[in-house]
Amino acid sequence: MRKEPLNSSTSNSDIGVKYPLPWYMAFAAVVFVLAPLEVACHLHLVPLSSDYKTCWSFPARGANVAAGKGIRIAVIGNSAARMGVNPDVLKTFLAKSCGSEVCLDRFTIDGSRVTVWNYILAAAFWRNGVNPDAAVIIFQPGALEDGGDLIPPIAQGLTGPRDWPEVFQDHLPSASERIEFAADSVSALYASRAKWRDKALHVAVPGYGPFATTVNRVNFDTLRAHANSTLPRAGSYHSLKSLLANARRNQTRLIFVLYPEFETDQGTRSLNRDAIRCIQQAGFEFVDLSTSTGLVESQYVDKFHMSPEAAAIFTVKLGEAITPLVKHHYRQQANATISSELPDPEKLSDKAKKGEWSL
Question: Shortest CA distance to 72 belongs to which of 118, 119, 129, 131?
């Protein structure tokens, strides 16, 4: 039986046929919406971000420390170091105890761990071919273990394409971390999503700040209780070993200082032992200030961060602990410099060899 041809007036909608939007049109629509937001983020929001400005300041500040007179110290860490180490107090203490001028700066990113510290040192010193006399790394229990690193500052402020192979191989082993890193590298808007989300919630939701703090505290207490009720687990330390290898390659003196958190679970303490072993086997110094500062709970802003009063106490304890290490190293460097400046005996005249020192 012959089928009748469709009437020319029949449309596709009459027979229920619908064509999807071509992929390139969908892509163009997304770009059309996001591109202005990305441009606005780069022009207006990124320059106002304290995190980005901090990262961008590292090369110039590192150069200032490296060119400074006397003992040159870089303090590396996260918000614990930012709130717990008073640079002026530490500089004054070291100058008096070492009998020398001191040039000191603090290089910190809130929430950072060992991977970020590696790239802080690279941005501030190694890429410019300079060094401090000592880099003092203030670390919290568990912060030297792999995992939990902040990817946005690594992607946007501290690395470039030449660093990506090392980042992927040594610090971001999982596909999800690499995808997030790539997205953060391409888009400042995406990399800053958490910060802008929190800012929006603080504005739009009354009492959001205390609520978020309470939720984070409950989550932390739950995780800590679980850690204390289970057997200590073995951690991995690829990022720490990468930092140690880079420091040896660049001849940077590292001093690791264990920060006195008010509360630390047993599982995390066990991880410290493995990290300390890696540090000492690599030939770097470790100082334990976790129990010797005499601080009490009332001197902490929370369970991790110190009040200004506690910071002054901790900074003096830190100065006392690192003075012998810094002073000894500085004298070795000074003696090596003097020896290198002495004339070669083989090139001296006979009078010079007799002590008259005329060439």
Answer: 131
